Amino acid sequence: MEQIFDRIYIDSDICNGKPIIRGKRITVQTIMEFLSAGESAEEILKQYPSLEPEDITACMRYATELLNHSFVIKQSVA
């Protein structure tokens, strides 16, 4: 398991190698999807009692860090 960010790890044997929180089977993507759907951090913590508030903050910081990189989105040809 490789720590790639504060509390965020990648393990090819867990969740198909997606970034996860502290070795749990909870992906950063899952937490970000909850947040983008309007769930509060408190609601997420109730649904995932093994998480800590710092885990949610780490997910947001990780997503923000990813946006520091340049991406090119290609349009599909219809």
TrEMBL record:
SUPFAM superfamilies assigned to the protein according to its UniProt record, in alphabetical order: Homeodomain-like
InterPro entries: DUF433 (IPR007367), Homeodomain-like_sf (IPR009057), WH-like_DNA-bd_sf (IPR036388)
Tree of life domain: Bacteria
Name of the protein in its database record: DUF433 domain-containing protein
